[in-house]
Request: fold
Amino acid sequence: MILYLFIDSQTRIDSPLFLKKYSQEDLLYYADVGFGYPNKIKKWDQTIRVSIAGSCSRQDSAEVAKVVDELSRIIAFPKVVLTKEEGNVQVHFPDSEPEFESIKTAEGLGVEVRGFVDPTSSLFTNKMKQVKIYLSPLLKNRKRNAVLRHEFCHALGLSGHSKRYYYEEHLMGRLNIPSLESAELLDSSPAVIPAADVRALQLLYEREMPTGLKRSTFKAHLAELGIQLQ
Ligand SMILES: [Zn+2]
Reply:
């Protein structure tokens, strides 16, 4: 145990130069969203097999297939596949609000939440093992599909949120919508994983990004590269 803690505290990026492929904005966003409790990188090192648990609408099942397709184009390793068998990422679409609420209460989550994940990772290696995604039946249309993608980002290991406001869609951040027209434009466009989250996922699954890396160490690497943290 003592040996493990010693090794763990030493987790660093061996050669952080690859970070320069990313813009300062990308790296700052990643510093917000790439680390969940307890402020360490968690990721998958095995094929991510996505299944739908129980029944769901044809639209929801088509949307899950679309998300799996998007994710499989974003990261090369590990593979992301859809399976009819029980996957290690299971998506639940409770069809009544009381059912959704009772699962949420059992997880001890707040009242504002319309979707959530229940992740299992190894406490010692920080590798993701299994995730359950739950989506509220109250979510409709584009918002439903965007929240589905938000939860998938959590499921892949983007465990945090960004409290900052952005002018472009960031699934794990807040959107500054300057006008009614832009709100309508967004509403009429299909939900896809936005560019900012594509880059955050790519950064997470860079071979050089070590599982278990602490947020504070990541920020120290950025400072070494001369990147100003806000
Ligand atoms: Zn979230």
Q: What stands out?
A: The pocket of zinc ion is lined by residues 150, 154, 161 (CB under 6 Å). The chain has one domain: 16-224. The beta strands are 48-53, 80-82, 89-92, 115-121, 128-135, 165-166, 174-175.
